[in-house]
Structures are given as structure tokens and as C-alpha cells.
Amino acid sequence: MADTYAPADSIHVLQVDDTPLLDETVEFPAGRDPDSLTLTTTDRADSALEHLEDNAIDGIVAADDLSDRSGRAFVDAVRERDSNLPVLLLIESESVASNAVSNGVTDVFSRDTAVERGDLLANRIRLLVEHHQSTEIASRTRRQLTELAEQSNELLWVFSGDWTEIQFVNSAYETLYGRSVESLQADPAEFMTAIHHTDQERVMQAMQRVSAGESVDLEFRITKPDGEQRWVRAEAQPIVDDGTVIRIVGASRDITERKRRESERVTELDSPDAPVDAVPDLFYELDENGDLARWNDALAAATGHEDADLASMALTALFAPSDRETVRQGIETAFETGEASFKADLLTADGTTVPYEFTGGRITAADGSTLGVAGIGREISPPDSRQQALEQQNERLDEFASVVSHDLRNPLDVARGQLELAQIEHDSEHLDAVERAHDRIGQLIEDLLSLARNGEAALDSEPVPLQTVVEQCWQTVETGDVTLELRTSAVVRADPGRLRQLFENLIRNSVEHGQTPHTEKQGDTGEQRVTTSISQSQGAATDLTITVGELDDGFYVADDGVGIPADERENVFEGGYSLASGPGFGLRIVDEIVDTHGWSITVAESDAGGARFEITGVEFDAA
């Protein structure tokens, strides 16, 4: 059976009035579909309430004096069923307006004005409905971001720029610090009382550096209320606006177990056969987690840090920020292959940088298990290729920012644009609240982006029904008069969020690049799949069909549009590539998601002559 999704700008209004003033022929302002208003009219409150029980209603226009009860009594009955549904009350006198609004009415409108200007009445209820819908979306987005943070095992937090206000903290604070979230919100400085007295000065200095615009990564001890002592590693990132640090975002985690193993391993790995202090080059040793466990005097001399400072610092903090990812990758390579070499700038205590070349090898125990990595670093003159490496690093950062803009900012900009139109037509404090909600969403995106830059992407695979995730994507991507055919009932093992991002970008790619006069598709070649058809009317593309189907070891997304030229197919997954206007990162995102899952993707011509993307190597899950 075909599922049909109504356009987002279509509203259903219930009119309760023995002298109705609205009809479906009303003209909306320019840019509005005149058929976007659906009316159901009744002259009795009882029948209106019955209709409300069985039908989805976006808003109500009601007379103040109905045949079977007063308008305000009717509103009371509505509020017993739905506390937020927009209700516009037609009033004869302005004297009752204030009392009506304070008793559950969303807004009031003069009947005399409505008689003369039905278009103003229709536009008023439309604005109330859109404000309600925008508020619901903002509330749902805020709730989802909070739920996402609560799924993390790490303590995530957001402070004001001067550390005097806690703007967000997840419940992991209670597990790590043994204190309640409410107590921290009441006293944002509470966490400082838990820090070991010998570490407090160092932590306070780090906080001052973050407030001045510097990112920090440090380790310190805390004492919980029951006397238990734990080690904590905290990373903090400043959010800067016009040169001022307005917020500080960060993450903290418990590293007590790692510290315990480090202490035990110092004796285990110490050997008279390794006179590391006699080596003129830098010597380092990392534990199985990649953290600094041992070093020689040359490292302390080269960095200007005392041994006590080095013991509490993260390895990456010893390098220039632009080289930290290179260091991480080099260490990972040493763990995986047994050896690695890389070049990076060492960051000294006074803030200067010195170019070094590092080599490292894996340390294994007698039973073959990995104990860590050890190696040396040798100072070198800055190579000519250093500038090129920095340029490549900047290109990667620019590409990352473009991806974020492509997938997160565009929908928010659309919402802001619609809000501006509503503010031009109607001056309301409710719309100001929506604007603040949009700004808050933008802030949360910035904060999560800052955390993501310092985190590691990890897959959270689970069984995901393809049909469900595609239908969800179809409601969020602007598809116009495009038809969707689902030819699969498969359940795959994947990260749900990234799989949804994959389909959103493939669907958007077909809509943006595949628009063409309708081409009749060939019939199915014997596949026995669940098939549904879905269509929307939003004006983005016409006469186009997108098909999502199943392969023996994966799935495909195809369309009957203009297709992709054969000589261009090898280039479509490159960042910035586009056959039409736009950032050209959609298919690059798809390629990255496919690669992260360990799948493969190819592009070919569909049976109808359009584009067909095949994703293979997918693991199916029993339905």
C-alpha cells in the first residue's frame, strides 16, 4: 500500500462558527500556495470536539459565542485534550481579549476585521500554526541533543566564558564526581572542591588559559565525597565570538585504571640494559593506550617541562595543534604494523615549536601481547615540504567545515528564512521566542562540533530496517514532486545515524542532479520485495522516481533522471565535485560513511538511464 506524506506547508484548520468567515479560496501572501488551507467547519462545540478526537488538526478558529456553549468554555474543553494546539478566538469586543488569552486562548481576532479581510484572518491562523510547529521542532531537536549527550560515557559540559555559570552538564558528572548535577548547577565552582589540593593550582591556571582563548588537555586527581580518589583527564575548548570567549565546552573521563597500570609497568619495564638517559636523542615509551609512560632527560630538556608535569600531560599536548592528528595516526600505525615514522613540531613550555622526526616500534610481551610503543625523536631543520603539509592540513579542516555546513546548517538556514517572512507579516513575541530557539540550536551545533574535533568517530552498529530509515529521510529532504519506490524489507547492521545521513545525501543528489521529463521504468526482474510508493509536493523536482532496492550483499539507490556521464563517475566522490550548483560534498560524505562501515560503493547507469549507486559488502540481520 502506498504511503503519502502531506506537504509541510499544508495546514488543516477546524472552524467552529455558526457564521463562518473562512473558506478555502482565501489568498495567502506571495510565495504561499493558495490551496495550502484545508477547512472543516461546524457550528457546534460538541461536534467540533468529536472531530478533534478522530482527526489531526493544526489549528482552530472559534466564535466567542456558540450555540451550545461559550467560546471560552469550548477552549477549556480543547485544552483538556491538547494544551498546545493553536486556538484563535473571534471576539466582538477588545475588552475581553486580555481575559481570553490568559484563560487558554492562543490569540484573539476582531470579528469586524475578519468580515472585511478574510485573508488577514487566514494569515493569522497560519502564523499561529507555523509558530507552534517551529516551537515543536526546536523542542524536539533540543531534547534529542540532550538525549545524545546522555548516551555518552564521558562527562560532557558547557561553562560560560568566565566559569561562573554551568550551561550544560550530563549525568555522567554524578558517576565521576559523586555529586549531583543539581548541586553543580547551584554552585558552578563545586567541582573545584573535589580536586586534590596539590593539583588545584595547575587546574586553575589551565582554566585561566581557556578563558583567554587557549585549548587545554590535562590530568588531575579528585576525591569523591566517600573519600575515594580518582584520576581524571579533561579536555576544554573555548568558543570565541568577536574575540571574546563566550562559552567553554569540554569532556572529562576517568583514567584511574590507566594510571594504576602505568605505576605497575614502570618497574616491570625498567631494565639496566636500557640506559635511556645516555641517549642524546629524545626517548619515549607509551603504554598500551598510547599514553606517555616513560621518557629520558632529553625530552624534559627539549620541552622545558618538569618530570612531574610530563607525568600528567597528554601525549598530544607536547605537539603543535596542527600536528596532533599526525602524531595520533603515527602512533596508531606503530601499534598496528609494528613500526612507524613521522615528522611533527614539538611544543615547548614557552610556546615555541621545534621540528622533530620520530620513529617508533611496538613493544610485545613474551606471550605476544602488546605492551606499548617505544621510540626516539631527532631534531631536524624545517623541510621545504613543511608549508605543503600545513596547507594539506588546512584543506582537510576546510573540507570538514564544509561537510558540517552541508548537513547541519542548511536546514537551520531554511527555518530562519521562513521565520523572517513570518516576522515581516506579523509582530509577535512568540516569533521572537522561535528566533531565540533557532539561535540556541546553532549554538549547540557549534558546541558539539568543537567536541567532535577532539573526539574519535566510532561506529555504533545495530540492526536497522532500510524501509524505516529511508521513509524518515524522505520527510526531511526537500524532494518536490518526486516519487519514491521502496523495493526492500531488509534489515542491515549499521550505525543508524550515519546510514540515515547516507540516504539523505543520495536522495538529495538525485533530486538536485536527476531532474528530467518522466521516463517509464522497466519492470522488476523477478525480485520478491516489499514495494511502496511515496510522493511529496514541495517544488524541488518533477517527474522523477527514486528507487531503493536490495542486492545479494547490499542495497542500491537509483533514479530515472539524466544520469551521470561515464567519464565523470570516477570523480563524483571527490570533495567539492558537483554537476550542478551547490557545495559538492554530498557524495563525498556518502563515500566516507561507506568506507567507515567497511562497505564498497560503485556508480553505474540505472535500468531507466539515470544514476544508480550500489553499496555492497553489507551485513544483513535477521528481520
Automatic annotation (TrEMBL):
Residues 141-214, 276-338 form the PAS domain. This is histidine kinase. It catalyses: ATP + protein L-histidine = ADP + protein N-phospho-L-histidine. Residues 216-267 form the PAC domain. Residues 12-126 form the Response regulatory domain. The keyword Transferase applies. Signal peptide: none annotated. InterPro entries: CheY-like_superfamily (IPR011006), HATPase_C_sf (IPR036890), HATPase_dom (IPR003594), His_kinase_dom (IPR005467), HisK_dim/P_dom (IPR003661), HisK_dim/P_sf (IPR036097), PAC (IPR001610), PAS (IPR000014). Pfam families: HATPase_c, HisKA, PAS_3, PAS_4. It comes from Haloarcula amylolytica JCM 13557. GO terms for molecular function: phosphorelay sensor kinase activity. Its EC number is 2.7.13.3. PROSITE patterns: HIS_KIN, PAC, PAS, RESPONSE_REGULATORY. Residues 403-616 form the Histidine kinase domain. Keywords: Kinase, Transferase, Two-component regulatory system.
